[in-house]
Structures are given as structure tokens and as C-alpha cells.
Amino acid sequence: MAVNSGLNNSDFQWYALRDLKRANAKNRAWEVLTEKGFEVFTPMQWKLISKKRGGKNRVRVPVIYDLLFVRSDRESIDSEIQKIETLQHRFVKGCGGNPMVVSDLAMKKFIHAVTNAESVKYYLPSEITSALKGKYVQIIGGSLNGYEGLLLSIRGSKVKRLVVEIPNLITAGIEVDPEYIRVIENETK
Fold it and tell me: Would you tell me how many other CB atoms lie within 10 Å of the CB of residue 20?
């Protein structure tokens, strides 16, 4: 948690930020902010990276290199943006330059889903077309107990994936065991 100037946690929000450093740069903004005590989340995935002398290393890397979420107050975030020249707010299009903010509930659900799932596939929002949106379901049991949402409908796939998203930023398809899926009838979500 960030050290704040007399503010309580209820003044904190999740800000969507971007880090303009190269993907292979040292001291990425999410690492620096974490070291400073901020609550930071960036979606990660495993990737094989070639070594200089042959062979490969399996390392965790950000799914989208410039995307990170920081939970803090606006004043503290703006102060860090002044110090880290490659760090910027992401802005809501058509809203007069308002920084993107994600609700605590949406972030909590997204973080819980992607960190507790064995298999996660990430998508950009533009990749999830209406043709890929399947039935509206509720998950009964397992690590996603109580989640509701759409299943991905991918032709030929035997894997069932629940769509969990942070609107306009990133979408995750979380693999769900079919025995936990309950189709919700007459829902138009």
C-alpha cells in the first residue's frame, strides 16, 4: 500500500496507467512503484526467453507491456508521474481528459480470477466480438464460485472459458470446469 498524506484507504482508487519504457527495459514503472509501497497490478503471463548462450528461460512478463494498475489517491499518483518520465495516465476517450479509473470491485474480481486460475488466456477488448460471446452463466463451486458472465464460444474448442474483463483495457478468458457451469436462462447481459 502506498504511503499517503493523511488520506484513508477509502480515498484510494485503481488508476489505469501506461509505462512507455521498452519491453526489455530495467526498472519498469510497476517494479519501481511496488518497491515504493504502492499496490500495483499488471497482468502477467509465462514466456520462454532465449538466453544469449543458447537455451531458454521461462519468465513471467506483462501481458501488455505498457499497462499497469495502481491503487492510490490521485495526488500520490500524479507525484509519481512527475518523477517517472515514462509513466502516464490512461485517459477515457471523449471525457475531457479524465484519467481511467477502475472500481475496487471490478479490480478485485479480475485480480482474483486471473491469479487463482490454472489457465488464463488474455484478449484485447477488440478481439472479443459478438460472435465469440456465448451463453450467460453462473459459476457454482471452485475458485470462481459466484462469478457470472459470458462463456467464450470458440468453434471446435473443448475448453470452457469465462469472460472476465476490465472494460476497454483487457479481457481474460478463464478456464472453467464444465461441472461448475450453470446456464442462466432468459438473461440478456
Answer: 13
